[in-house]
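Q: Is it fine to ask for two folds in a single conversation?
A: Yes, each is treated on its own. Send the first.
Q: Here.
A: Result:
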Amino acid sequence: MQQIKVEVFSSPGCSKCGHAKELLRKMAMELGEERIAWREVNILKELDYSVKMGVLSTPAIAVDDELVFSGLPSQKKLRAYLEKKLEQLPTGER
């Protein structure tokens, strides 16, 4: 089954980062955990990768290796974006 890959870039002590992770966890459950593969990226532990992705502040969210949100999006914006990406998955694999 095809999945979209979502990464939440965070840093230790970032209160908005905790909210971003919780928002994404909830959204993945609602939209189908088997359709959304997500992980947390600690920018201090993966600095080179974070820089390569263009992350300048946290929280930031990348979808399918593209930095989409460089701040905490509203729940409505994030849901709309993820739903659109899920609709673009090959039909036989949704």
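Q: Second one now.
A: Result:
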Amino acid sequence: MTSSAEQMRAYKGPAVFSFGFRPFFLGGAIIAAVTPLVTAAAFGGVLTFNPPNGLIAWHAHEMVYGYLGAVIAGFILTAVPNWTGRLPINGLRLAALAGLWLAGRAAILSAGLIGAPLAAMIDCAFLVVLDLLLWREVITGKNWRNIPICILIGLLGLGNLLWHMELAQGGAGTFGVHWGLGVVAILLALIGGRVTPSFTRNWLAKTGAAPFAAPFTAIDKIAIAALVAGVLSWLFAPGSLSSGGILIAAGALHYIRLLRWRGWRTFAEPLVLILHLGYFWLATALVLLGLSLLAPTVIAQSAALHALTAGAAGVMTLAVMTRATRGHAGHALEADRLTVAIYILVNIGAGLRVAAPLLPVSYNITMGFAALVWSSAFALFAVVYGRYLVQPRRRQ
């Protein structure tokens, strides 16, 4: 019988379709590089762009269900073989799945021509198919531990459907976007809560540092439970003061969780440190979101939401994208100067976007500059790492 490794080496198709991270990390990075710039340019009157569902709705949808949907798919399709011991989805099946994601992006832009119902069907199909593939792999591989991930991907797909249903009823799609962001926050806590301490432990062991002593305990479970409670209260009781309190408490618990992983010991390796910074953004976003409910005149909800999107999601996705690409493409798990530049750009861009309402500069100018800096991080990833993603694995 042929082994999995032998079957992988026997793959002769295009390198970009040899592993799930390749097309989806590249596609997600391009969407993340382009969408904020187009939005900022349209707001500033530099560009005339009127998507069928409106500029704000298009921007929010493409950042949550376009960019993040792609990166999540890339991560999951790459992690599943490790979780289940089964072969990765590649070749024609992966190309078809990537084509379905791309068709969703085109359908959103052409909804005025093909009709909203057909556009919704095309766009929603991607996450449905992805989730069905994930369920099949997890069940076949008897990998019961990751059933919560299957459920969350299904909920992400439901959020996309809710966005389309809202628009069909004359709404702005806000609840569908918030639903998606809530799911993303939980995914960041679950997946980030695995990879951050794991990679930190591995790096400390490799460098001969003192043992890493932060196993998964009750505090981790309580922090995740508080996050779920905070997300549910924010979605279904956004005007309640208790919702703000739960979110702030959840953020505090995730700060404690982060401190237990001792990220300050990883300053010598940005490839590990960036994971801790991404998780710091997640805890901060929860606190800011809670404060925006308790004191909306002090903390704007848009600032809190961008702490979650541009900050937590932006930083954590680039952390995972750079590490996974380097590892699977056969490059050393060390951050070079251009990778460090990517990390600096995304953090500065996120910080500027969150602080924009408070800075003594024109809000529109600050927002435009923040979009330029943040998008530059993803553009740089697409340029620097794009060649790794489309070329065969480097022989070591």
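Q: Anything structural to flag on that second result?
A: Two points. The chain has 15 helices and no strands. The domain at 15-390 is CATH 1.20.210.10 (Cytochrome C Oxidase; Chain A).
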